[in-house]
Batch of 2 targets.
Target 1
Amino acid sequence: MFNLKTSRFSSAEALRRLRYYDGEPVSPSEFIPLAEETGLIDDLSWIVLEEICMLFGQMRGKIDSVSINLSMQQFEDRSLSGRIHECLKRSGLSPDKLKIEVTERVLLQDMDYMKMIMEEMTGEGFGFYLDDFGTGYSNISCALSLPLEYTKLDRSLRKVHARR
């Protein structure tokens, strides 16, 4: 995000991108489900987190925060918070600098569990964004019950609004 008042970038989102051998991009809608099915999503996500912590640590002062997406498998890992803290510690970063994006699809897998995890991690200083709101069956009251800093609307909702 670019802050118009300060004329500087305030936050960034870390996204993993892959390419075919010919250089053409592979859509995340292709490789993320495959990584989830094969069990590689956890390793992929931790690699991204390590890279982001290292890079963000080097950019200290140039940007306020960075957001990452985590999978349901990672949220089910009871060592999640500790592992993230270790990564941040190695980079000299505090938890408030890392924003965790949760997709509506992940939330809907187990709303009560996700709310509990999010509340625990918010208490430790982490911030949460709801990503792709409007792609599933959750509603505004559901989103309001969660400890969220931001809700990012799905592209399909933005297109509807733009046509009006």
Note: The radius of gyration is 16 Å.
Target 2
Amino acid sequence: MTDTKTVLTTTQWLKSAAVVCIAIGLAMAMAPFTFLAPALSFFVDLAHLPLDGAQQIDTDTEALLSAISGGLLCGLGAAVWLIADHLYARDPTLARRMITLTLLAWFIPDSLGSLAAGAWFNVVMNSGFLALFLVPILMSRTSQEAAA
């Protein structure tokens, strides 16, 4: 039996996290071409700790990769939004599995690539981002199991 309040809370949390994901994705995609460029350069410098200004987004190739990765992040957020909005209330178990698999398909290669690139702190930031989505999923799963 699914608790309606838990489903609504989880859906709201997931949709809020999806909006954050979409906003960050759009910012990453547009940053190299707008006033957001310094923020993106700060982000890549932070990912490569220490903060020393050594990492910048200043080539056409880096701008292209930022646009691509930002677009993919925006798409990830849109997918989570749609699953939360259209499927979660009807089939929370399937929705949780779909979102979890989607997130792991992003998190694992992104984090392994970050480590290979020497950007270990990006894994830390990725983990916080992942928690935005997994915390409500795990809490709702626990709640559903307790109700069963």
Note: Helices lie at 4-30, 37-47, 60-86, 92-116, 120-147.
